[in-house]
Amino acid sequence: MRAIVLGGGLMGSATAFFLARRGVAVRLVERGYIGAGATVASFGNIRRTGRHLPQLPLAHRALALWNRAEALLGRDVEFRPTGHLRLIFDAGSRRDMERFAEAARPWGLEIEALAPGEIRRRFPGLGPSAIAASFSPEDGSANPRLVGPAFADAAARAGAEIVQGAGVPLVTTANGGFRVETEQGDFEADVLVNCAGAWGKTLAAQFGEDVPLSTHGPQMGVTEPLPHRILPVVGMWSQDAGAYLRQVERGNVVFGGGVPRVPVDDSGFARIDSARFAPQLEKIVRLCPALRDVAVIRQWSGCEGYVADDLPVMGPSRTTPGLFHAFGFCGHGFQLGPGVGDAMAELVETGRCETPLEPFGIERFAA
Ligand SMILES: Cc1cc2nc3c(=O)[nH]c(=O)nc-3n(C[C@H](O)[C@H](O)[C@H](O)COP(=O)(O)OP(=O)(O)OC[C@H]3O[C@@H](n4cnc5c(N)ncnc54)[C@H](O)[C@@H]3O)c2cc1C
């Protein structure tokens, strides 16, 4: 079997890696640089709390792979299972947390509910006005700059060919398979995996499959380096836009959320909106008041594809044998990435997947 994976973000790089390990002849075709799309812009949160419940089996599969990432990839991608603390500031959000904790238990996710005294004792300085919190001890974070290239390099070592700077490839069907014409040459394959992220909708449409996907950019920022004091990833249960932060080992505090995401135009370049900066910082300071007087040294955003029902598109094409999709990860794909690559490789090579992917099938939009 010959496969082409189109799109070299985390999903495409991980899919190419796991396909190559299964002995499939695979080419990863990226129009720009590996990992430079939504993946590099990510906050890096490896969080299962708050996920759509049918996504938890895939999230568990992903977490098991994050735990083995260094051994699998031959490189430290800074996965740190520091735990995920999610603070609560109002009664409605506390009820949401309690409902989620109860419902997630049969899906294999146990989260601890913390009272204010416990938050102060275990996490001094975080959320002093919080009325409760949840804590998920096995979750954490990794470095979004490292992980895409690490998967692509490991895929190359396992036999994959990595093609970067391929322009916007023209994809047609040919000889019972697919032909991909690029600035770096033309390639044919029996199988095509659409991992084109926010642009996956365009490729799917070429094969008669419409997906209600829009592009938005979450707004991120990072502070100057500070003494390392914050161990867990810190988030917020909130009925509007919850904020989040984490401190990297070098000391900078990375933050995001707290304000609505900015729409991205057709160019795909996600700009930050300076009018949202002050309200965003207000929420961040609520999570950690010590950040009030700290300098923010950089802000950025990234173009992410959001599907109308807030679930990704994963699985075989409805119209075209040999075509598979894995795109539109709605702002929560970083955690899932290794699991998506492993599950897609299993599906492509064997025709089956032990992790249920039915809730994410593209046929849900057929009507
Ligand atoms: C600012 C921000 C913060 C985020 N924070 C988190 C977080 O903390 N936790 C979490 O779980 N998720 C987070 N996410 C979401 C997560 O980063 C994404 O869901 C994930 O990285 C998507 O990976 P991808 O490979 O599908 O897409 P991308 O990384 O965008 O990769 C798609 C690639 O396809 C290429 N491409 C597109 N069209 C073509 C074509 N026709 N031919 C060839 N190549 C093509 C693009 O150039 C791009 O490199 C965040 C996203 C953003 C933007």
From TrEMBL:
GO terms for cellular component: cytoplasm. Residues 3-347 form the FAD dependent oxidoreductase domain. InterPro entries: FAD-dep_OxRdtase (IPR006076), FAD/NAD-bd_sf (IPR036188). It comes from the Bacteria. It holds the Pfam family DAO. Keywords: Oxidoreductase. GO terms for molecular function: oxidoreductase activity. This is FAD-binding oxidoreductase. It comes from Psychromarinibacter sediminicola. The lineage of its organism: Bacteria, Pseudomonadati, Pseudomonadota, Alphaproteobacteria, Rhodobacterales.
